[in-house]
Amino acid sequence: MKNLTCCGTECMQCGLYGNMCKGCNEVCGKVFHAPKGQACSIYDCAVGKHGYKSCAECNDLPCDVWRATKDPSMTEEEFEENIKGRVGNLNCLMRGKEN
């Protein structure tokens, strides 16, 4: 998977990538939706606090930090599907490293 963020989002699949957003990894988590000058709370936790390359290294995936970042335009069902997809991406990433 190309351009996978620490939370499992595929940048290339996002309509904002390349327009409003350069990608989480490229801007050290300081993406457009994070508070100005600060990293996204997921990036800050995984990379800043724990020194992980991604949330895939965390035993608490998905955690309360993830749940606190729900896009208010999403329904609960959409958000849960989004989380499942990102966890799946991270699981694929980890399986690829095991081979």
Give the number of DSSP strands: 0
Number of helices: 3
Termini Cα gap:
15 Å
**Residues in helices, as a percent range:** 25-40%
Largest sheet, strands/sense/barrel = none
Counting structural domains, the number is 1
What structural class do helix, strand and pairing data support?
mainly alpha
Strand content: under 5%
Residue windows where pLDDT falls under 50 for at least 5 positions:
none
- Radius of gyration from CA coordinates: 13 Å
**What are the secondary-structure elements, in order, as H or E?**
HHH
Mean pLDDT: 91
Per the principal axes of the C-alpha atoms, what is the gross shape? globular
What can you tell me about this protein's structure?
Helix content is 36%, strand content 0%. It is mostly helical and 99 residues long. The protein has one domain (11-98). The relative contact order is 0.16. The mean pLDDT is 91.
